[in-house]
Amino acid sequence: MFKKILFATSATGASDHAARVAFNIAKSYQSHLNIFHVLGVPSRGYSQVVVDVKTKERVDVDEDYTAWVTEDIRTYYEKYLDESLNYTIDVAVGVPAREILRQAKILKPDLILLGGSTGDEGESVYKKSSLGSTLQKVAKSANCPVLFVNRPAASFWGGLSNIVFGTDFSKISDKAFDFAMKVAKTLDCELSVFHALDISALHAGKMLNQDEIEQQIRESLRKIRSRYEPRLKELKGYSMDVWEGIPFIEIVKYARDKQADLLIMAHHSRKISSEDIRLGGNVEQVIVRAGCPVISINK
Amino acid sequence: MKKKILVIDDDLNIRDYLVSLFNDNGYEAYIAGDVKEGIKEAKKIKPDLITLDIEMPGEWGPRFYRQLSQDSELKNIPVIVISGLSGHQYAVVNAVASLTKPFDREELLKIVKETLN
Predict the structure, then answer these.
(1) Nearest CB to B62: which of A16, A20, A259?
(2) Which member of A16, A152, A157 has the closest CB to residue B62?
(3) Among partner residues B56, B87, B93, which is closest to A256 by beta-carbon distance?
(4) Is B9 a domain residue?
(5) What is the pLDDT of residue B65?
(6) Which residues of chain B carry a pLDDT beneath 50?
(7) Spatial contact of B105 and B22, defined as CB atoms under 8 Å apart
(8) How far is A222 from chain B (nearest CA, A)?
(9) Smallest CA–CA separation between B32 and chain A, in Å?
(10) Scanning every residue of chain B, which has its alpha carbon at the shortest distance from the alpha carbon of A256?
(11) How many CB pairs below 8 Å do chains A and B form together?
């Protein structure tokens, strides 16, 4: 299932929770784990001067420095690195998002795994209400599923057994469902399909009455049944639910209620042609707030 | 009647310690070494409280809690997480408390007393 995982890390506290997930998935599923670190953007035209992630000092990047950083990463993750783990460590210089995507193009991983942003003085993004730009850019352009681990809660507690798939019934959601089915079947997980009925955006300016809300819930449930249930029957367990409210809040609540190990959602930002690299609002908010890892699918 | 506490932990030393601690303080302690055994014991003895380790061989503690919360007879049993793993306080969101190994016995007894009374 996850034969090759690209774990992009700052090798600082912001990536610690992601690291636990990355190493545990790699060990549980005998994946090859590529631990990838981007040193930063060269600060002068033709030089290789970068700002060190940890010391914040300007340093000349040469072979010695790269070797030192590689060793430093090995030391940082020492407790996870044993003989049973199949891993490599790579270090690159450049714009983090671009380098991560470049590395993904070379490695062709089944999964890119990203932790919290380091853009806020080492704070994980879970305290903020938006994702860092690197996470947004990678999620938008990656050719494979991207797994986010932002909040400390979002850890991997002994494997995957319960997956929540959030759908908005779009074509990309159908792709995400294919992926969710594949994960659930391969890893013998239960799958809960969830749709959040957005009552804040519906009929802007007009408050829906309860009959209307419940009618729409029934319609959405019928849609879930006709669209997904025939395939869900292939799994050992599944459930289908529709809740009304603000979608990202309801998805996070539902995943918490289900004690999900993993949330899978599609996002639509590949369709955005402008320079706006933000993820779809709901996905971004779910990634920031969810109490479990979130996989975003964009194609 | 003594309140029953089920200790679920794969570490024999911790199990023995907790059993002595609870028995010496007026509770009746039972043990389980893994999730399967834990569920079996919980169904059999219907404990008033459970202490739960997170990392165990086979299934982990959160998996136990999920099964517990899906059982109508067991879902309201309070759970105290006791673990050495970092971030364990996030592993079982609805746990009444989450203690780090090595834990303070007085703190544990206080939480147990507050929970059971």
Answers:
(1) A259
(2) A157
(3) B93
(4) yes
(5) 92
(6) none
(7) no
(8) 25
(9) 18
(10) B93
(11) 41
Q: What is the CATH number of domain A4-148?
A: 3.40.50.620
Residue B18 lies in a domain: yes
- Residue B111 is assigned to a structural domain of this protein: no
Placement of tokens 């907790």 in the chain = B18
Query: B17-47: per-residue pLDDT in tens?
Result: 999 999 999 999 999 999 999 999 999 999 9
Q: Quick one: pLDDT at residue A274?
A: 47
DSSP three-state, residue B54? coil
Q: In whole angstroms, what is the distance from residue A66 CA to residue B61 CA?
A: 40
Segments of chain A with pLDDT less than 50: 120-127, 272-277
Q: How far is A79 from chain B (nearest CA, A)?
A: 13
Query: Domain A162-297 carries which CATH code?
Result: 3.40.50.620
One-character DSSP codes across A108-138? --SEEEE---STTTT--GGGSSS--HHHHHH
Contact of A152 with chain B, judged by CB distance below 8 Å, is answered with yes
Predicted confidence at residue B43, as pLDDT, reads 96
Structural domain of residue B81, as residue ranges? 4-92
pLDDT at residue A125 in the model: 44
Phi, psi of A72 (to 5 degrees): -65, -40
Residues of chain A neighbouring B54 (CB-CB closer than 8 A): 157-158
Give the model's pLDDT for residue A63: 84
Beta carbons within 10 angstroms of residue A72's beta carbon: 17
Closest CA–CA distance from residue B68 to any residue of chain A (Å) = 12
Task: Residue B36: give its domain's CATH number.
Answer: 3.40.50.2300
* Residue B105 domain flag: no
Q: What φ, ψ does residue B12 adopt, rounded to 5°?
A: -60, -40
Give the number of domains in chain B.
Answer: 1
Ramachandran angles phi, psi of B82, nearest 5°: -130, 110
Query: Who among A16, A151, A162 is closest to B66 (CB)?
Result: A162
The per-residue pLDDT for range A206-230, each reduced to its tens digit, is 778 889 899 999 999 999 999 999 9
What are the start and end residues of each CATH 3.40.50.620 domain in chain A?
4-148, 162-297
